[in-house]
Amino acid sequence: MIGKPLQIGPVALESNLMLAPMAGYCDLAWRITCRELGGVGLACTDLLSPHGLLRGNQESLDLARTNEFDQPIGMQLYGADPKLMAEGAIWAADHGATVVDINMGCPVDKVVKKDGGSKLMCDVPGAVRIAQAIRKALPDRIPLTAKMRLGWDEQAVDDRCAETLACQLTDVGTVAITVHGRTTEMRFKGDCRRDGIRRVVEAVGEHTNGTVPVLGNGDVKSPEDAIDMMRETGCAGVMIGRGALARPWIFRDAWGLQTTGTVPPRPSDAEVACVIRRYFDRMREYRDDHYALHKIRTRVSWLVKPLNSRESSAKPLQQAIRTAEDAQAVHAALDRFLAGELRAGRGAAATV
Ligand SMILES: Cc1cc2nc3c(=O)[nH]c(=O)nc-3n(C[C@H](O)[C@H](O)[C@H](O)COP(=O)(O)O)c2cc1C
Q: How many CB atoms lie within 10 A of CB 205?
């Protein structure tokens, strides 16, 4: 499947790469930033509460916000009540979703305590009923997908929980499955287990005669990792989350490597600074300065990573952005960096 764009039900994607949902990270501004750089076949919202959407809760509406540049877009729902999930799916369909995804992988207490997220993997018939209810409620043009882990714990892995659930989900009209190669108990620790992903790929392939793609997810941090994931698991596509935080052009690079055999040249410092500026300004545009300043402070250590070199570190720039009191100060810090300031020489005097 290397170099082959994905087909998710009736929706043809431009690549086989997906931007992963990451609560608190994957807002509209971030999705557009990654898309603009190229290679993103599908991006997904953070997990959304159907209850919040239906009640018009401002936080849920902000998380679900999309626009004409944010296409195709998956809206991810979490919960355990089939009726509520189906109503949430209709809301998503009415508010711009190209795809509706069910969260079956979240390990966070707040979510699993209410039987949602990866807790759904502990009740395969219940999870299948949710998918069935959503599929019945959605118009045909909107495909249903699910994102899961390998199971709750080692016992679930031995019991082939992910294989069973994935196959049964396809029986009720789920047309793509993403598998994060860890159990719930592993959370984000330990290595992503590609052998586990491979087993789901093989089971779903056999069960559906290869008609339902399985995407592999976990620890893909470079274009080469994406190809290794596909080679080792046989997956049809790859979902990338944390690997995009410092390099939102990873999709462009991974797609370039698949389709041309080469990775495009690494962006210059000026291009990286431009990516940071545009991301920041989009957050201001889609939300407000307060939100943008808060988010850029929490993200800046990732964003400046590519600006570190053997000769100098971008730590002073990071510090200047983190302490910026207004939007102008963020832009001024980037200007100073590009003028050769706000760099710390490695072993030499810092140019702050
Ligand atoms: C901070 C954070 C938030 C996440 N939020 C979600 C979420 O809302 N929905 C979801 O399905 N997965 C979520 N995930 C899991 C990611 O989508 C992905 O499966 C995981 O990070 C492994 O992929 P990666 O190694 O490419 O990051 C989250 C992960 C992190 C680190």
A: 17
80 contacts 104 by C-beta, under 8 angstroms: no
The SS3 assignment for 248 reads coil
Q: What CA–CA distances, in Å, run from 120 to 106, 202, 239? A: 10, 22, 21
- Please report, for residues 103, 114, 166, 233, the alpha-carbon distance to residue 205 in angstroms, rounded to integers and kept in the order given: 21, 32, 10, 12
Decide if 167 is catalytic.
Answer: no
Q: Mutation test of ligand 1: which of 22, 101, 242 has the most ligand atoms closer than 8 Å to its C-beta?
A: 22
What would be the CATH architecture of the domain defined by 7-260?
Alpha-Beta Barrel (3.20)
Residue owning tokens 């809206």? 75
DSSP 336: H
Domain segments of the chain: what residues? 7-260, 269-345
pLDDT in tens, 72-108: 999 999 999 999 999 999 999 999 999 999 999 999 9
- Give the number of the atom of ligand 1 that is nearest the alpha carbon of residue 240: 26
Atom of ligand 1 nearest to the CA of 242: 27
Express each pLDDT in 219-239 by its tens digit.
Answer: 999 999 999 999 999 999 999
